[in-house]
Amino acid sequence: MHKLVVLYPEPADPDHFRDYYVTNHLPLVMNWPGLLAWRYSFDVAATEGEASYFAVFEGDFADAAAMAAARASAHGQRLAADVANYATGGAVVIHYPVQGGTG
């Protein structure tokens, strides 16, 4: 599996961010070809001190190639362009192959 993570710093208008994200952006995410699962939160906390981020998104893809194809698709480009409509603090996008195990 390959994970895409988007970290959102504090926006200028947190209420607008939350409303736009849930009402407009997430419906686009739900139809993103190649996306296996997704999660998000507005309740980002640090174990010590203040959190550097306001919100986080996680998306799972089968592998790096599937994620790259999804991001390069017309739908992926539309998703990327939509970020400017709510994330006035910007966005940090990271991705990585997931290693795992059981406890």
Automatic annotation (TrEMBL):
Domain EthD: 11-88
MF GO annotations: oxidoreductase activity
Transmembrane segments: none
InterPro entries for this protein: Dimeric_a/b-barrel, EthD_dom
Pfam entry (one): EthD
Superkingdom in the source lineage: Bacteria
Matches recorded under PANTHER family: BLR8190 PROTEIN
Record-given protein name: EthD family reductase
Species, as recorded: Streptomyces palmae
